[in-house]
Design goal:
Layout (H helix, E strand, L loop, with lengths): L2 H4 L2 E2 L5 E5 L2 E6 L2 E6 L4 E6 L2 E6 L6 H20 L2 E8 L4 E5 L2 E5 L6 E4 L4 E7 L2 E6 L2 H12 L11 E4 L15
Antiparallel strand pairs: 1-6, 2-3, 3-4, 5-6, 7-12, 7-13, 8-9, 9-10, 11-12
Length: about 180
Amino acid sequence: MSRVGKKPVDIPAKVKVEIKGSIIYVEGPKGTLEHKIPDGLKVSQKDTKIIVEKTTPAKEIIPLYGLTRTVIFNLIKGVADGYSKELEIKGVGFKAQMQGKNLKMALGFSHPVLYEVPEGITVATPKPVRIIISGIDKVKVGEVAAEIRDFFRAEPYTGKGIMHVGERVRRKAGKTVTK
């Protein structure tokens, strides 16, 4: 039995939730999101709480039970507060800046790297070596952060590249010369 799935999700005062058939709509001060409820689960609203229940005892439903509750929690938190991730760039001459709707990065290649920011996501560069990604959808924010990070992952020999703020890169020893 899922311990996460049993817990009800609290709805803040500034968020409005509407359940139509198998789709849940969440609207808040930051925007609106929706999610399709998998077959075999029932979502109901009682006062200021959302409860997820299983309608069939099938084994395929058990993993989706806790997942659906967590997704609904993330939707509510996203429209109420939003999500953000911070990346930092390390390396001589490595920098990033916003250019219209694109993120332009100099990462030591022969050409600048351009990344088109998807709809619903905001990217800011307060410093040339810091990138802040924010939005209301937790999955999209994490996906954009991973895509930007994949352009030049922090490598263990020199420690340069794009990494999350506070991430520690485990350094390796370079080649040694023997006599």
